[in-house]
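Supplementary Note 3. Input sequence used for the single-chain structure prediction.
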Amino acid sequence: MKRNLLSLAAFLILVVGGGLTIGLFTLPGEWYAGLAKPVFNPPNWIFGPVWTILYLMIAVAGWRIYEANHSSAAMKLWWAALVLNFVWSPSFFGAQQLGLALAIILSLLVVILAFILTSQKIDKPASLLFVPYAAWVGFASLLNGAIFMLN
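The predicted structure, written as discrete structure tokens, is reproduced below.
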């Protein structure tokens, strides 16, 4: 039990800590405020709470798959999703590369969907934890695409 809690803590620190750190270093700023945005663009304040909740879910899903089978295809997909997730903000906000960020987020959506399909055979709750993540990244993909087209 102690080992399981230690690995859960490691996943939480990695995902939540990493995500929040990247977010703090890539705040939207004036450049983003000056972009043309679609009518469905949510207010900026919503992103922090949504991503915090999603990061918690991502960490728990990864931990569950790791504990079930750390060398599975699902675990590899989880890592790929985390990497893509963590490079999106620096690409969009840091480098201000809307097209590159769009390619990254669309790739992320594909990997998330593949994780959902693959992980349900190993751990159904882990798979279900990624469903809200897929929905949000799907919406974020539309938003990224619309901002790319408008600018």
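Helices lie at 2-25, 29-33, 47-69, 73-94, 98-119, 124-129, 131-150. The two ends are 52 Å apart (CA to CA).
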